[in-house]
Amino acid sequence: MWKHANSNTLPPKELSIFKRVVKYYDQKQYKNGLKYAKQILGNPKFAEHGETLAMKGMLLNCLGKKEESREYVKRGLKANISSFVCWHIYGLIQKSDRKFDEAIKCYVQALRLDSENLQVLRDLSVLQMQLRNYEGCKDTRYKLLMLRPSQSASWLGYAVVHHLLGNYDIALTVLNEMNKGQGDGAPGYETSELILYRAMLMMEAGKHEQALNHLNDSAKDIVDIDSLLELKTKILIHMGNLEEAKVHAWELVDRNTDNLLHIELLCRANSVDSENIDVSTRRHTFEEILERYPTARLARRRVLELYSGAQFTVHLDNYLKQHLRKGSPPLFIQLKKLWFDPEKLETLETLLNNYRRNMELHQSLQSDPIIEEPPSTTVWLNYLIAQFLNFSGRYQEALDLVDSQLSATPTLVDFYVLKADIYNTAGDVITASRWMEEAQSLDTADRYINARCTKFMVQAHRLDDAIAMASKFTRGNTSALEYLSEMQCMWFLIESARTLKRLSKIGESLKLCHEVEQHYRNILDDQLDFHSYCLRKGTLRAYIETVRLEDRLRDHPSYFDVAHLAIKVRLL
Q1: Could you tell me how far CA 492 lies from the centroid of its own chain?
Q2: By its UniProt entry, which InterPro entries does this protein fall under (predicted)?
Q3: Helix, strand, coil % in the chain, rounded to nearest 5
């Protein structure tokens, strides 16, 4: 790790042992390294050897002995304050404590003592990226590039930081210089990603025609065909070449009819104004898709949002009949967005009443009984009607229908879940939790029902029962609560915090809110390893998207929920 460690105060024998300590640290054989460090420090002449003390502290830290490790590192630094190794180790300790600003100060001090140490420079650039200090990272990565121009990661790291600074032309120049020195590379994933990344840079720089030419010239070396077609379609749309964009958009839809991004690109290619797509254009696009692919699930569902009146009735009728015959429990939820439109909700009610009447008269969903429906169609029709009644606030009618169906099919779990949902929507969370518990007992291997049951129990203030229920799907020797927290199960922590607030257990509620906040910090900290990993693997597009995602991580609704809850608790 430290090829030029300042251990010249050690005689050859001890120096050899010190090198073994460093070797064992690099190999993660911490106990062996500790054993050899003790050999040096056991000699009274070298009991205060700074770098060995610091290394011992580092090894102890890796073994989880934090307090003891910090004592040794500080002793080592005090014994040899002019050693870059001691400063680097102290920085690593600060980094492990998530004190990134302090770690950076230590790395800077280490570089004052050894300005060309590659490992310290790499560690410094990682923390500068983590803290979004792009200007500082730019300077650090420039030094790395000057020291290791033969490594592609040095060039890529320098290009990426300029990209994030908005210096697109400089980033492109860096990539071009890298190609001059190293060539285009052998065909494969990394070469493909680099080509696509360069096109991404050109697009963001506004050089759309150049990006298109680049993709066309390098198409044979690109293995990610979806990304190639997506980029070409976006570029052509931006350039106003809608006819050619439409060709590529159709290629994407042909590859996957249920990819919403591909359908959206086709809508944009069909629209005169690609940024503001009108309803008629969307409707026409979905009709074209359904003409080519009549069974395309996403198109059949989304087109219902675009129709109204008689056309909506016809399409909804066909959609419902197909799914009722097939037996699709999530049917109502799939179309829930439609039911907030009173006109469409009324259409649904009319169709459901017609289906029920036709089934009672001649066991068919149609008014003219061409075929007789199987008994399962009646079951799922009742399920859909009960969901509609629940959504409409007609809870007693919904419960009566569910009870009637349960008397005929007492082992059908979905109706027990629905009954619990109805009670929950009506505000009776205690009864809802009981019925969800009944549903869970009928299918103990279903993780989804277990999670729903746990949530209902928490809402019913049955916290102990909820933890016991959740423990059925936890592993290891840890308690269910610790396991759920370790797995960053946000919804459980937030629901539990709400319940504890209602029970006036303010301290416990606030503690869970802080746990959720800590999970978000951990998610941000999880980036650390990827700042260098993605440069080595060449996954630059995904890396840029991840960095931008992490920058808006706290925009997530669950973070807003827990922050709002924590404020309420604080104000009590």
Answers
A1: 18
A2: NatA_aux_su, TPR-like_helical_dom_sf, TPR_rpt
A3: 75, 0, 25
